[in-house]
Write a structure and sequence with these properties.
heterodimer; A: 346 residues; alpha+beta; 7-stranded antiparallel β-sheet; 3-stranded antiparallel β-sheet; 21% strand; globular; B: Rossmann fold; 2 domains; 5-stranded parallel β-sheet; 12 strands; 30% strand
């Protein structure tokens, strides 16, 4: 498979960029030329080779840079990683899910040997090797969730299920699109989604919650969500908004291609076996407009989606300020031809 | 818009739990009037099983404590401030028995503090009977410095800790007992509109 991990940054000089293979790997989120909220949940089954859907836990060329950025964010604000005391069993469940997936699907980079509760984990790219007793917190250098998620791309939330609801009772969230784990921890499903406009009225969250409560072990699901980010910045938390908010004013017709990024979250959910909790992974991908327009179908579609986006959604996603500049830039790449259905390039 | 407030608790109003072995009513200021209204819906026996913690707050001049005393509760404790009420509440909850029903009446930050103590004592927040009375003032947590600003009646409001002008989002955390405040002028420093008095 030959993943080459890039040395790049998500802050400061922002050297992040996608290789041609990583562009085709990107989970483009629009299956038609317009966008509206939907319960777009589908089984999280292995998808096309070379795409973000190939394996349940996707590791890509940005792995080491992502992990470095997470470490910086956690060093500045440890509250990005929190777990309520009753979530320890779910933390161990998460260790099992991530280690077994990573070792199975990327054997040249990760390996896991299990002898009963004696586990031996090797992470070659990060030069980590640990032997520990599964279930014994004292045998790992960090709490289980933090230990493994400092070695796996994507944000992770652990949802406890009780009283017919899901409760966000643990998580590590360092690359979020403007929501605060520290504020939302302990909330129910509808409570933490409260700020989302329009979707409540059309029943999105009622249906999604009903679906998730019935999730079974061995049948993970996924959905895509998207927003846009100025500069390839992973840490767009409300906590640091005073630092990054100003970026939204820096978009000009000349720099759209490099500054404006489509940010897609591949959200996957698994029922966990010991805790009966659900892990909610939010794996983020960034794609520069200049990279996006290398795929003709995506350039046409992105242009049309932005042009017809309901203003409430544009405002909630924080892109109103640079939406028109981006539409104007993309219009050069939209020849008006029809687009084929589905996400993938033609 | 209703949908924007889904994380905010609802306060359906005080109704007596006639099956509770003991009632613990925590109230402040005009919340006393909710307790007096409750008395019209129930009996003297109810108050014989009831402890009232009352914080006079802004209603000191109204002498609600005299009216509350006339309900003949098992105990009436009149305390001078939010922290003293919460300190007493913590102690009472630590030794409360299983059949105790908790009630809270007053402003939203006051109810929020009672719910926080209830959560800390392992009480299901849904079992607490609540009624909002008095000012619509809010407690706001600055998402940047995490400081709490009390008695917020305007939007935006300056954080009382770091001074940032905060937009008060309609997003409420029960764990923190506060609304979320986020910098209002990050994208145009200095453009914060003047505070508008909307939570009176």
């Amino acid at each position: 498979m030959g993943l080459m991990f890039k040395d790049e940054t998500y802050r400061g000089d922002f050297t992040f960029a996608n290789s041609p293979a990583a562009i085709r790997h990107f989970p483009f989120p629009f299956h038609e030329d317009k966008y509206m909220y939907a319960v777009n949940i589908e089984p999280h089954v292995p998808g096309r080779k070379g795409t973000a859907y190939e394996f349940p836990i996707d590791i890509d060329e940005h792995y080491l840079a992502d992990m470095r950025d997470r470490a910086i964010t956690l060093a500045e604000d440890p509250l990005r990683c929190q777990s309520l005391p009753h979530m320890l069993a779910a933390e161990w469940d998460l260790v099992e899910l991530l280690m077994t997936s990573m070792a199975r699907d990327y054997p040249e980079h990760f390996s896991l040997t299990r002898d009963g509760d004696q586990w031996h984990w090797i992470n070659r790219p990060m030069k980590i090797e640990d032997k520990f007793t599964f279930g014994n917190v004292a045998t790992l250098p960090l709490r289980p969730m933090e230990y493994i998620t400092r070695q796996c791309q994507g944000d992770f939330c652990l949802l406890d299920q009780r009283d017919g609801d899901l409760w966000m009772d643990a998580g590590i969230v360092t690359s979020q699109a403007d929501w605060s784990l520290d504020f939302d921890i302990g909330m129910s499903f509808k409570e933490w989604h409260a700020p989302v406009p329009m979707a409540h009225e059309i029943g999105i969250f009622d249906r999604a919650l009903k679906f998730l409560l019935a999730m079974q072990i061995g049948h993970p699901v996924r959905r895509l969500n998207w927003t846009m980010t100025i500069n390839p910045r992973l840490d767009t938390a409300p906590e640091t908004y005073p630092k990054w908010g100003i970026d939204r004013t820096t978009v000009t017709p000349e720099n759209v291609g490099d500054k404006v990024h489509l940010r897609v979250e591949l959200q996957a959910l698994w029922r966990l076996p010991r805790s009966n909790a659900i892990v909610f992974s939010i794996r983020g991908y960034l794609l520069k407009m200049r990279e996006l327009v290398t795929i003709p179908k995506w350039s046409r579609r992105m242009h049309r989606v932005l042009k017809t986006l309901p203003p409430e959604i544009a405002a909630y996603k924080g892109l109103s300020r640079y939406q028109q500049t981006t539409i104007d830039w993309l219009s050069k790449y939209d020849d008006g031809q029809p687009t084929s259905l589905g996400f993938f390039p033609d | 818009m209703a949908a924007a407030m889904l994380s905010r608790p609802v306060y359906p109003g005080l109704v007596p739990d006639m099956h509770a072995k003991h009632n613990l009513i925590v109230t402040e200021g005009e919340g006393a009037e909710a307790v007096l209204d409750l008395a019209t819906k129930t009996s003297a026996e109810f108050f014989a099983r009831t402890t009232i913690l009352y914080c006079t707050a802004g209603s000191a001049a109204k002498d609600h404590e005299t009216a509350l005393a006339k309900l003949n509760p098992k105990h009436l404790w009149v305390l001078p401030s939010l922290p003293t009420v919460m300190f007493r509440l913590k102690g009472v909850l630590a030794t409360a028995d299983m059949g105790t029903r908790l009630y809270a009446a007053g402003t939203e930050p006051f109810i929020g503090s009672v719910i926080q103590e209830a959560l800390a004592a392992g009480i299901d927040f849904k079992s607490v009977v609540t009624e909002h009375r008095g000012s619509a003032k809010r407690r706001v947590q600055c998402v940047h410095c995490k400081g709490m600003t009390e008695n917020v009646t305007t939007n935006p409001v300056a954080c009382s800790h770091c001074g940032i002008n905060l937009f008060v989002r309609d997003h409420y955390s029960r764990r923190l007992g506060a609304f979320q405040g986020v910098i209002i002028d990050a994208e145009e420093p200095g453009s914060a509109p003047p505070p508008e008095e909307i939570y009176r």
